[in-house]
Each structure stands twice: as C-alpha cells, then as structure tokens.
Amino acid sequence: MRTLVFIPAWNEEASVPAVIGGVREGLPEADVLVIDDGSTDATAARARAAGALVASLPFNQGLGAALQTGYLHALREGYDCCAHLDADGQHPPAEVARLLKEIYADRADLVIGSRYRDRGRAESDDYRPTLSRRIGTGVFRFFLTLATRQRFTDTTSGMRAANRHVMALFSERYSPDFAEIESLQLAVREGLRVEELPVRMLERVGGTSFLTPLRSAFFIFKGLVVLLVGQFRPRVEAER
Amino acid sequence: MTALLAAAKNPHVNLTAQTRIVAAVLAVAFMVMILELIRRDKLQERYSVVWFVAGLGMLVGAAFPGLLTLVAEAMGVRNTNVALFSIVLLLLLGLALNFSVIMSRQAAQITRLAQEQALERAREQAAEERETGAAERETGRARS
C-alpha cells in the first residue's frame, strides 16, 4: 500500500518542520508532501529541509484548493491511500496512522479524525475549543447530520484519510471556499463510506486560529448556504 | 416641431424628437466604441456580443418609440419612462450576474492552473532529489 501524507501549510514555518519530522517518524513508509499555499515566510524551504516534497502554489488559494492539490497529486502518482493533517502541530501523527489503518482494512473510503466523538477522552484533557468555535461546531454538526442523515461530530476536522475513490472525487469536485463541510456532504451523497474516528488533538505549536467572532458568524452563514445548495447539486457517481 | 408638440400633448410618451436623436447618436457612438475596443484587442469578441445587443436595443428604442409604449403597456406601467428604466435596470442586473459567472469560471481555472504549477514544482524537486541521491533528505534528517 503506497501512502501519501500531505500537509497544507500557509505561513507555518515555525511548526512545519516538527510536523514533518513527526510524520516521518510515525509513518516511515509514507511519502510526505507539503502544499505551500502561497506562504510569504520560509515554510517551503523549511519543509524541503525537513525532507518533505513541496508543492508551492504561486499565490494563496485557500485551504480547499491546497487540499485538492494533495488529492490530485495522490491520484496522479498512483498512491493507494492518502491522509492529511494540519501544519500547526494540532494533529499527532500516531492518530493519523490510526485513521490510515481503517483505510487499509477497507472499512471506509474516507475517515475523519474527530475531536468530539469520544467526549471524555478528547475534550477533557488536551483540547479546549473557544466559545465561538464551539457554537460554529454545534451548528455545522446539526445541519450536516440533517443533510447527510449520518452522525458527524467534528465537521471541520483537518485530519482525514482516504482511498482512491475519494481522491478521484475530490480532485475533480472540491469546493475552494468551504472544503471541510461540503466535502463530507459530497462524499456521502456520492455513496462513499465516510467514518469518524475519535482522535486526540494537541494545542497548536505555532500560528493562531483564523477565527474571530465576526469571521465565525460569516463562516457559519456561508457554510449553511453551501450546505443548502449542496443538497440540490446533481450527483456524479464516484468512479468505483 | 410638430413632433415636439404632439409629444407634449401626450403625457405618457416623454420621448421628444430631440431625446430620440440624442439616444440614437449615443447608441451609434457606443457601438463604434465597442468596435474600436475590439480592434485594439482590449475587448474579446465573445464578451462584446452582449454589448452590441444593448447598443442595438438603444437604437431600436430611439427609432421606434411606439415600441417602448407597447412594452410599457404590456408591463402594465403607465409611465413609459418608468418602464424604460426598469428594463435597463434588469438588463444591467443580468449583465452583472453574467460577469460573476464568468469570474467564477476563471477563478476555478486559475486555481487549477496554480495547482498544476505547484505539482510540477514538486515533481521537479522529486526528480532532483533522485539525481542527487536524496542528499537534501539526509541533511534534513541530520538537522532534525
């Protein structure tokens, strides 16, 4: 099983080498690709120095476009499965390995690492979300569950593992604006098996969350519009 | 002069001969401007059609003001001017939407282009590293 682990990074020079190091240690058999989303700092150079392959987008395109670049690479280079995690050090590579195990065992096409699935374990010790994030998460959780008729707890998780069906789908159709949520809706609508797995998350090593309260409100509004429209999109059968 | 008087007598048709001439001249000038923009490669033909249609519409409206009255009556609007303004407003709204659609398509194309370039760079790096015996990887390992 050839595995690609890709890391979208935008101005994460402080944390990206450690994340790459962690992935290479925890998943020695996987290739590591950093998608540098138009960083203006030394992210690309540091990632290269840390031993990762770097795909540098010429200008900042947003998380969705960066993730799609990873799926596109995985699809074209013939990887059997792929996984991605955030560059800020929130996601322990050991947990990514657990997600990948589900894909290797063919128990799901797409596995999401959830901070919330196992409340007692995830929230109590390591991970403490802010209030605006909790509200946003709650709203999205409710509406995505409504839209997909499947229970999702962590809709915006940036830690996922996927097989080739998902690569084929996401490299063609991946919303640049609202990647995390719309992609889940899309995958379920296309009949793919999407699973959540409880994971442990850490405090970010570097960088700050991009969410301010006003931005959160706009983010939630945009997300709801996207979800509503997504319900009426024509289906394209995933190549299975 | 007689036309002016006739127009003045009818309160619902406010297009005088003078405004009609001005409108016709503006419409022709507008279409000449479009042609000039195309000639200088500042405007692509495929985006000019819609503007040509708008210019022709202006010209037709100026030549046959009766048509405008007819349309106004069909819309149930007493005042022809109001009908004219609402039609123009709607057309402009449609045009603006059309541009947003074109913009979205081009944004998607730009994104794909950026992704292709990024992946090309990654492939180049992979080829280089294979050539140099993954020397960079080794230094990276030593550093970390």
Low-pLDDT stretches of chain A are 120-125
Q: Could you say which structural class the secondary elements and strand pairing of chain B correspond to?
A: mainly alpha
**Element-level helix/strand string of chain A:** EHEHEHEHEHHEHHEH
CATH superfamily of chain A: Spore Coat Polysaccharide Biosynthesis Protein SpsA, Chain A
In whole angstroms, the N-to-C terminal distance of chain B is 92 Å
Number of domains of chain B: 1
Gyration radius of chain A, in Å:
17 Å
In CATH, the architecture of chain A is Alpha-Beta Complex
> How many beta strands in the DSSP annotation of chain B?
0
Strand content of chain B: under 5%
Cα radius of gyration of chain B in angstroms: 29 Å
Percent helix range of chain A: 40-55%
CATH topology of chain A: Spore Coat Polysaccharide Biosynthesis Protein SpsA, Chain A
End-to-end CA span of chain A: 18 Å
The helix tally of chain B amounts to 6
Separate helix tally of chain A: 9
Q: Regarding CATH, which class of chain A? A: Alpha Beta
The residue-averaged pLDDT of chain B reads: 83
Which characteristics define this entry?
heterodimer; A: 240 residues; alpha/beta; Spore Coat Polysaccharide Biosynthesis Protein SpsA, Chain A; 7-stranded mixed sheet; 9 helices; 7 strands; 15% strand; globular; B: 144 residues; mainly alpha; 0% strand; elongated
